[in-house]
C-alpha cells in the first residue's frame, strides 16, 4: 500500500486521530511516520503533552502500520490486543513525531514499536509497543 492509499482509506471515516490533529507523513518498507500537535487538544492540565495523547498517536500509527502489512485488507483487519508506553520527557508545544516500526509481522499477530520524539529537539518523548491481532472479516463487514 502507498501512503496516499492509506490516507484515502483513513479519510473515509471520522476518528480520534482527526480530533487530535494526527497526520500521516511517511510510509517506507521499514516504518510508518506521523506527527501530532502539542496544543490544547493534546495537553494535560499542567500544560504538558498528555500521556494518553501519546498513546493515541502510538496506537494510531501501530494500527495503521499493521493494516498496511495485510496481504488482503478486504478479507482481514488488525485489532489491538495490548499497548504499553513509557513517557520519558515532557513537551509543552510544537509537534511530536511518531515512527512505528514492525518487530514481528506474523500470520495472526503483529508487534510494532513506536518511538515518539519532539520535532524540534529530536528528544525521545515516549516509547511504546503495541500487539495487534490479525482477524478475518465476516462476509458482511465494511471493507477497506
TrEMBL record:
Molecular function GO labels: 1,4-dihydroxy-2-naphthoyl-CoA thioesterase activity
GO cellular component entries: cytosol
Name of one Pfam family that matches: 4HBT
Keyword annotations of the record: Hydrolase
Hydrolase recorded as keyword: yes
Domain Thioesterase: 46-122
Residue stretches in coiled coil: none
Protein origin, superkingdom: Bacteria
Keyword Hydrolase appears in the UniProt entry: yes
Similarity comment text for this entry: Belongs to the thioesterase PaaI family.
Official protein name in the record: Hotdog fold thioesterase
Protein species of origin: Hymenobacter lutimineralis
Lineage: Bacteria, Pseudomonadati, Bacteroidota, Cytophagia, Cytophagales
Amino acid at each position: 500500500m502507498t501512503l496516499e492509499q492509506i490516507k484515502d482509506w483513513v479519510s473515509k471515516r471520522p476518528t480520534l486521530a482527526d480530533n487530535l490533529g494526527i497526520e500521516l507523513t511517511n510510509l517506507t518498507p521499514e516504518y510508518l511516520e506521523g506527527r501530532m500537535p502539542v496544543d490544547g487538544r493534546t495537553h494535560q492540565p499542567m500544560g504538558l503533552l498528555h500521556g494518553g495523547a501519546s498513546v493515541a498517536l502510538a496506537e494510531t500509527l501501530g494500527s495503521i502500520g499493521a493494516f498496511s502489512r495485510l496481504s488482503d485488507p478486504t478479507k482481514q483487519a488488525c485489532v489491538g490486543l495490548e499497548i504499553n508506553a513509557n513517557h520519558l520527557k515532557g513537551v509543552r508545544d510544537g509537534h511530536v513525531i511518531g515512527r512505528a516500526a514492525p518487530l514481528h509481522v506474523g500470520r495472526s499477530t503483529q508487534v510494532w514499536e513506536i518511538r515518539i520524539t519532539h520535532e524540534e529537539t529530536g528528544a525521545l518523548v515516549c516509547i511504546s509497543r503495541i500487539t495487534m491481532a490479525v482477524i478475518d472479516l465476516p462476509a458482511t463487514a465494511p471493507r477497506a
